[in-house]
Amino acid sequence: MIAEARLQEEVDRFRQWADQYPLDKRSDWWAEEYPAWAQIDAAVLDYALETPPTSWTPEAINDVLYAVARDDERLALASLLCQRAPAFLYRLAEVALDRGERDATWQLAVQLGKSTLPPAGTEKLLLRIASDADEYVRRHALMVLARLGSAATEEIALAAWHQPHENQQWARMAALWSLHRIQSPRLEELLAQAEIDARPYLSDFAKRMRRGEIDE
Fold it and tell me: Which of 41, 71, 121, 195 is the most buried (most CB within 10 A)?
C-alpha cells in the first residue's frame, strides 16, 4: 500500500498543478513543463514492480493512465514501463483501449511493439488497438504491426487507405509506409495514386518514398 499511496500523492500533485495551468496558455507541450516528472516516473515504476498483478487497484490504474496520457510529448513513462515492467504495460494498454483513452493508448501501442512480451499476445492486443475508433490510435497500431511483420498488416493498411476520414491524408501515409515495410505487392498501385494526389503532404510523402528518402 505504500507504493500506491506514493503514486496517488505524486499524481495528485500533478493534477493540482494542471488545474492551475491556464487553459488559454496550453500548447501541445504544456504538461512537459511540470517540474516533478521524475517523481511521477519513480512512483509509477515502484508501484508496477512492487505490486502483484492480482493486487493492482482500479484507482492506481486510473492514476497511471492519467499520467501516461499527459506524458504524450515527453514519452518517458510508457517507455519506462516497457523496459522495466512489461506485464504492467500490457494490462495498462488493455484498460486504456477499453476506456478510449486516446493519448495513452497510442503510446502504449508503440511500446508494445518494443517489449519482450510473448509475440502472439502482443499481436492480438495490437490488432484490437488497430480497430480502435480513433484514427490516430489506429495509425500507430498499424505501423507497429508492420514493424513486427504481422500477416494482418496489408489488410489493415488497405482498409485505412479506403476509409474516408478528415485525417485520411495521414492515414494513407501510414498505410504506404506499412506496405513498404512489409514489401507488399499492393504498394506500387497506391504509391502511384498518392504521387498525383491533390493533398500536398501525401503526394510529397509518396514522391520521397519513390526516391528512397523514407526511413524504415
Answer: 71
Compute CA distances 214 → 39, 40, 178, 180, whole Å. Answer: 38, 36, 11, 10
DSSP assignment of 149-162, as one string?
T-TTHHHHHHHHHH
Instruction: Give dist(CA 16, CA 183) in Å, integer.
Output: 49
pTM, entire model: 0.94
In which residue ranges of the chain is pLDDT below 50? none
Q: Give every CB contact of residue 142 below 8 A, 6+ residues apart in sequence.
A: 130, 153, 156, 157, 160, 174, 175, 178
Residue linked to cell 488545474? 19
CA 190 – CA 96 distance, rounded (Å)? 33
Give the tens place of pLDDT for each residue, 80-118.
Answer: 999 999 999 999 999 999 999 999 999 999 999 999 999
The grid coordinates of residue 197 equal 494526389
4-37 burial code (b ≥16 CB/10 A, e <16): bebbbebbeebeeeeeeeeeeeeeeeebeebeeb
**Residue matched to cell numbers 513486427:** 148
Look-up: residue for cell 497511471?
64
Given CA atoms 42, 116, 172, 95 in this order, what sign does their dihedral have? negative
Which letter does DSSP use for residue 28 in this model?
T
Count other C-beta atoms under 10 Å from residue 174's C-beta. 24
Q: Which residue, among 144, 136, 130, 129, has the nearest Cα to 177 in the 3D structure?
A: 144
